[in-house]
Amino acid sequence: MIIPFFINNRGCPHRCIFCNEKMIAGDRPEEITASYISETVNLFLSKASHKKNIQIAFYGGNFTGMDRATQERFLSYTAPFIENGSVDSLRISTRPDAIDEERLVLLQASGVKAVEIGVQSMDDEVLERSKRGHTAADVIRAVAILKERGFETGVHLMAGLPGDNEERFNRTVEEIIALAPASVRIHPVIVFRDTELAEMFTAGEYKPLSIDDAVCLCKEAVKKFQAAGIPVIRLGLQTTSEMEQPGGILAGPYHPAFGALVYESMFADMAISLLSEKKTLGTKIVFRISPQDVSHLRGHRNRNLKSIMERFGLDDITVISDPQQMRGEISLLENDGCTLQSRI
């Protein structure tokens, strides 16, 4: 369980063209105080169904880019929970150009276990056009230092940045795989109000991805990361009330369940692949799948099943929920008792 706190743009040397941190973080206090952290953490702990693997996270902004006194102050607010064992560790997000040995010594001494860095792209032209202020070389250096110091290192990627395309995004994915981070988050670029990207969009200088293109790009990225043993722990942005306000989002492939769209598409691909392997196919078929993946196979309002039935001329598809089935795997049961399997 992660208990999140947002440090809205603190420590950021400038504003990236796509950034509206208030929109992403939602309605949070501008100032993080000891009492706010204490009350929030205790509330989360009181509702926790388990007491293990609990982290406090400082998201948004650039934690290690803040002055040392502010970092120490925030870390002191969390210290009692680390010391009494009610929280296992801390997680922070930062920029790749704000990582060095001195900063990491402070983090390690304060119970920080995981560091997530905003990479967004490994293409220097894309980074420059997005006004990120760092290079791909900074990412390579930061990941190496973090892993050498024993931090669980995660990276954030964005699909659809200005100047990016399918080839460049795929190359970014391959370069991140080569760095072997502990985890990845991916979300497509959304055009929020009050950003430079919004001005570019209004002027016709930026065209966002369609929802179908965003799903396709992220789907292929997930496949590659999972094949490399790197978990994708988040797809898309978590919805906030600000995002739902009229005019908050101007354009882009926003969907409140974007991750579900990606996994629906992946499971549809697997089902179609299995059925396409069959030389002869009856009109009724049976799939076996993990309970956690049933909704992914069925799709919203069974749209995956309806599409598959129409494509293959089927009369019926039975989906068996089997706790013994591995997550991410789908089995096609045959009349002779044999099975065909496909896996993400």
Task: Describe this structure as you would to a colleague.
This protein has two domains: 2-256, Alpha-Beta Barrel (TIM Barrel); 278-343. The chain is built from twelve helices and 13 strands. It has helices spanning 21-25, 34-47, 68-83, 101-109, 124-129, 136-148, 166-179, 196-202, 211-227, 258-277, 294-298, 303-312, and strands at residues 2-6, 55-59, 89-94, 112-120, 152-159, 183-188, 191-192, 232-235, 249-251, 284-289, 316-321, 329-333, 339-343. The protein has a seven-stranded parallel β-sheet. β2 (55-59), α3 (68-83) and β3 (89-94) form a beta-alpha-beta unit. The longest helix is centred in the last third of the chain and has 20 residues, at 258-277. The model has no long low-confidence stretch (mean pLDDT 92).
Please render the helix and strand layout as text.
Layout: E1 2-6, H1 21-25, H2 34-47, E2 55-59, H3 68-83, E3 89-94, H4 101-109, E4 112-120, H5 124-129, H6 136-148, E5 152-159, H7 166-179, E6 183-188, E7 191-192, H8 196-202, H9 211-227, E8 232-235, E9 249-251, H10 258-277, E10 284-289, H11 294-298, H12 303-312, E11 316-321, E12 329-333, E13 339-343
Parallel strand pairs: 1-2, 2-3, 3-4, 4-5, 5-6, 6-8, 10-11
Antiparallel strand pairs: 7-9, 10-12, 12-13
Keywords:
2 domains, 7-stranded parallel beta sheet, 12 helices, TIM Barrel, 344 residues, alpha/beta
- CATH superfamily (homologous) name of the largest domain: Aldolase class I
CATH fold category name of the largest domain: TIM Barrel
The ordered H/E elements are: EHHEHEHEHHEHEEHHEEHEHHEEE
Instruction: State the CATH architecture of the largest domain.
Output: Alpha-Beta Barrel
Rg of Cα set: 22 Å
Overall, the morphology is globular
The percent of residues in helical segments reads 25-40%
Sheet with the most strands: spatial strand order: 1-2-3-4-5-6-8
For the record, the CATH class of the largest domain is Alpha Beta
Specify the biggest β-sheet.
Answer: 7 strands, parallel
Enumerate the spans where pLDDT stays under 50 for 5 or more consecutive residues: none
Helix-strand category: alpha/beta
How many domain regions?
A: 2
Count of discrete alpha- or pi-helical segments spanning 4 or more residues: 12
Distance between the termini: 25 Å
**Which percent band covers the strand fraction?**
15-25%
Nearest-integer average pLDDT: 92
Q: How many strands in all?
A: 13
